[in-house]
């Protein structure tokens, strides 16, 4: 009897993971769909929707309770970063600790050789070196490699992205063609544990609002802010005070509870520092390595040069970039291949 590849697929009940299940099933794999319960207010709807798709495709489906792990690794981190005046990236942390951490462990214990998700990305193996490469999705508009830079060679070797060569319209077309219940589902929001999208309302449950001063770079008081977690570096709208001209958040200082503002143009930086780095094709990028970087999911790729520091890298840009935000991920590419990434610590202007 032929041994089928046994794959655990993360299923949210949405169209992407549903079509990923379809494609894996069509490939002949033995697919085990799993829906992760991540939050206390999870009402089971996602699991029910995923189960309907699994039943339609005649694949098995299970649920896994990872609420404790998710709170410890993702939501607690999210709150703490805002408390520290930084802007977190929960999707990056969730991928590292939950989807390609705990779920991969769970898959191996369940007899699965691989995990799969509905991410738009591609994994390719170089037969000459045996190394795996993480590459941008064919459909660049939905490419999600930015959130996957923490994957390692070991994890890449056990990971499948069935949607990597498909466009979103093609995915929806397949879902409709095969009558999948998720065909008309809307795309999920950015932060899954804040369904209404009101980040400030969510944070108020855990953090006290402590008003403080808006200042300029010289320390002159410009106004009063509502509490540092309401703001992020680069922000212009929603400052709550009329300054008579556009003003941008340049830095957030937790020690004295002040937020430094600057006029248009001052939000641009020539470079930044990153720490907690991970590189996929090598242990560390060589000093002076030239590549492309992305400092936000929606940002364009920008040419840069990496210079080693004691705890990470100094990233020098060939052209200034706006709103480089501490706490966010900076991800590095060579053409369409993801080389690695790290957490932005601070930005700088001028030559250092």
TrEMBL record:
<keyword id="KW-0067">ATP-binding</keyword>
<feature type="region of interest" description="Interaction with tRNA">
    <location>
        <begin position="296"/>
        <end position="297"/>
    </location>
</feature>
<dbReference type="Pfam" id="PF03054">
    <property type="entry name" value="tRNA_Me_trans"/>
</dbReference>
<dbReference type="InterPro" id="IPR046885">
    <property type="entry name" value="MnmA-like_C"/>
</dbReference>
<feature type="site" description="Interaction with tRNA">
    <location>
        <position position="328"/>
    </location>
</feature>
<dbReference type="Pfam" id="PF20258">
    <property type="entry name" value="tRNA_Me_trans_C"/>
</dbReference>
<dbReference type="InterPro" id="IPR046884">
    <property type="entry name" value="MnmA-like_central"/>
</dbReference>
<feature type="domain" description="tRNA-specific 2-thiouridylase MnmA-like C-terminal">
    <location>
        <begin position="270"/>
        <end position="344"/>
    </location>
</feature>
<dbReference type="GO" id="GO:0000049">
    <property type="term" value="F:tRNA binding"/>
</dbReference>
<feature type="active site" description="Cysteine persulfide intermediate">
    <location>
        <position position="192"/>
    </location>
</feature>
<dbReference type="InterPro" id="IPR014729">
    <property type="entry name" value="Rossmann-like_a/b/a_fold"/>
</dbReference>
<dbReference type="GO" id="GO:0005524">
    <property type="term" value="F:ATP binding"/>
</dbReference>
<keyword id="KW-0819">tRNA processing</keyword>
<feature type="binding site">
    <location>
        <begin position="10"/>
        <end position="17"/>
    </location>
    <ligand>
        <name>ATP</name>
    </ligand>
</feature>
<dbReference type="GO" id="GO:0103016">
    <property type="term" value="F:tRNA-uridine 2-sulfurtransferase activity"/>
</dbReference>
<dbReference type="GO" id="GO:0002143">
    <property type="term" value="P:tRNA wobble position uridine thiolation"/>
</dbReference>
<keyword id="KW-0694">RNA-binding</keyword>
<keyword id="KW-0808">Transferase</keyword>
<protein>
    <recommendedName>
        <fullName>tRNA-specific 2-thiouridylase MnmA</fullName>
        <ecNumber>2.8.1.13</ecNumber>
    </recommendedName>
</protein>
<dbReference type="InterPro" id="IPR023382">
    <property type="entry name" value="MnmA-like_central_sf"/>
</dbReference>
<keyword id="KW-0963">Cytoplasm</keyword>
<keyword id="KW-0820">tRNA-binding</keyword>
<keyword id="KW-0547">Nucleotide-binding</keyword>
<feature type="binding site">
    <location>
        <position position="36"/>
    </location>
    <ligand>
        <name>ATP</name>
    </ligand>
</feature>
<dbReference type="GO" id="GO:0005737">
    <property type="term" value="C:cytoplasm"/>
</dbReference>
<keyword id="KW-1015">Disulfide bond</keyword>
<feature type="domain" description="tRNA-specific 2-thiouridylase MnmA-like central">
    <location>
        <begin position="201"/>
        <end position="262"/>
    </location>
</feature>
<dbReference type="Pfam" id="PF20259">
    <property type="entry name" value="tRNA_Me_trans_M"/>
</dbReference>
<comment type="function">
    <text>Catalyzes the 2-thiolation of uridine at the wobble position (U34) of tRNA, leading to the formation of s(2)U34.</text>
</comment>
<feature type="site" description="Interaction with tRNA">
    <location>
        <position position="119"/>
    </location>
</feature>
<feature type="region of interest" description="Interaction with tRNA">
    <location>
        <begin position="142"/>
        <end position="144"/>
    </location>
</feature>
<feature type="binding site">
    <location>
        <position position="118"/>
    </location>
    <ligand>
        <name>ATP</name>
    </ligand>
</feature>
<dbReference type="InterPro" id="IPR004506">
    <property type="entry name" value="MnmA-like"/>
</dbReference>
<comment type="similarity">
    <text>Belongs to the MnmA/TRMU family.</text>
</comment>
<feature type="active site" description="Nucleophile">
    <location>
        <position position="94"/>
    </location>
</feature>
């Amino acid at each position: 009897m032929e041994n089928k590849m046994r794959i655990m697929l993360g299923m949210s009940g949405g169209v992407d993971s549903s079509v990923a299940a379809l494609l894996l099933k069509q490939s002949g794999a033995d697919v085990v769909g799993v829906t992760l319960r991540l939050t206390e207010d999870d009402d089971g709807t996602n699991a029910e929707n995923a189960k309907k798709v699994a039943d339609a495709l005649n694949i098995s489906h299970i649920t896994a309770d990872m609420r404790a792990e998710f709170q410890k690794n993702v939501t607690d981190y999210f709150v703490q970063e805002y408390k520290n005046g930084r802007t977190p990236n929960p999707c990056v942390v969730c991928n590292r600790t939950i989807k390609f951490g705990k779920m991969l462990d769970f898959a191996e214990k369940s007899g699965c050789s691989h995990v799969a998700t509905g991410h738009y990305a591609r994994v390719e193996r170089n037969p000459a070196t045996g190394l795996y490469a993480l590459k941008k999705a064919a459909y660049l508009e939905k490419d999600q490699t930015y959130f996957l830079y923490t994957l390692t060679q070991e994890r890449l070797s056990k990971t499948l992205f069935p949607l990597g060569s498909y466009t979103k319209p093609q995915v929806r077309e397949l879902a409709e063609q095969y009558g999948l219940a998720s065909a008309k589902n809307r795309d999920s929001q950015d932060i899954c544990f804040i369904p209404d999208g009101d980040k400030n309302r969510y944070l108020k449950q855990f953090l006290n609002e402590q008003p403080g001063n808006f200042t300029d770079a010289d320390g002159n008081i410009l106004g009063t802010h509502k509490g540092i977690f309401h703001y992020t570096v680069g922000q212009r709208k929603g400052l709550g005070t009329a300054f008579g001209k556009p003003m941008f958040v340049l830095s957030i200082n937790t020690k004295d509870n002040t937020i430094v503002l600057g006029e248009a143009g001052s939000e641009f930086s020539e470079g930044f520092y990153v720490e907690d780095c991970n590189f996929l094709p090598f242990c560390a990028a060589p000093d002076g390595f030239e590549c492309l970087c992305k400092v936000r999911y929606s940002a364009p790729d920008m040419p840069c040069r990496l210079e080693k520091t004691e705890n990470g890298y100094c990233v020098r840009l060939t052209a200034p970039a706006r709103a480089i935000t501490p706490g966010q991920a900076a991800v590095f590419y060579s053409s369409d291949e993801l080389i690695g990434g790290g957490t932005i610590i601070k930005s700088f202007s001028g030559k250092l």
